[in-house]
Amino acid sequence: MAAAPPPSKRLRTNQSEGGAAEGSPGKEGAPLVVLAHGAGAPSTSEWMLRWKEKLGEELDAVEVVTFDYPYISGGKRKAPPKAEKLVDHHLDVVKRAIKEYPGHPLILVGKSMGSRVSCMVAGEEDINVAAIVCLGYPLKGSKDSLCPLDKLESTRKKMKCANELHVIDGGDHSFKIGKKHQQSTGIDQDEAEGRALKAIADFVNRSVLEQR
Which of 110, 128, 133 has its CA nearest to residue 41? Predict the structure, then answer.
């Protein structure tokens, strides 16, 4: 999680055109969240839909916008291109969301590949990002082979912006925890994800306050 709207009410989860979960349009100061999917599953996957709702509720977002990158839209199943080639489409989605909800703190969230592209989008000069939340990198599980923790920590030390790491103990790349691990720790899947969501909310709230 890296920094570049305090929660109060609950999210209303009816769907709007463009893949958004709507809250109350007039919630002043509520964050606008743009959530990008990973390489292998579109915005309509069970994981994405579940985390979209969870993030909307925990952050009390004015809206959580999801979308599909062109290579996977319309039911396509192609290998993703280089992340750099996805930036323009992602940036267009972000700009449309900002235009619809001006004045709300912008939070970019991504799953795995989507988090990498989110970081690239945040570097664009014409948008102002309050915080970036990377799910699967760097907010990850301790058993995620795609991003060893020691290498991640060495990278974090080089970062100039404020950043935090929350590790889901026993979690894989999608945070799934094995039953044996749950039994040995006494922490089930819902509780582990709940702790992660609280860490996200705390970080986002601090980042937004520091930006004001």
Answer: 110
Distances (CA, A) of 200 to 48, 69, 105, 107: 16, 24, 15, 11
Backbone angles phi, psi at 22, to 5 degrees: -90, 140
Domain boundaries, given as residue ranges, for the chain: 2-211
Number of other CB atoms surrounding residue 65 within 10 Å: 24
* Residue linked to tokens 């907010």: 139
**Topology classification of domain 2-211:** Rossmann fold (3.40.50)
Peptide bond into 138 cis (omega under 30): yes
Give the pLDDT mean for 100-127.
95
Global confidence as pTM: 0.81
Per-residue pLDDT at 143: 62
Nearest to 170 by CA among 154, 153, 156, 183: 183
Q: What percent of the chain has pLDDT over 70?
A: 82
Q: Identify the three-state secondary structure at position 66.
A: strand
Mean pLDDT of 124-130: 92
Distance CA 180, CA 97 (A): 42
Distance CA 204, CA 164 (A): 11
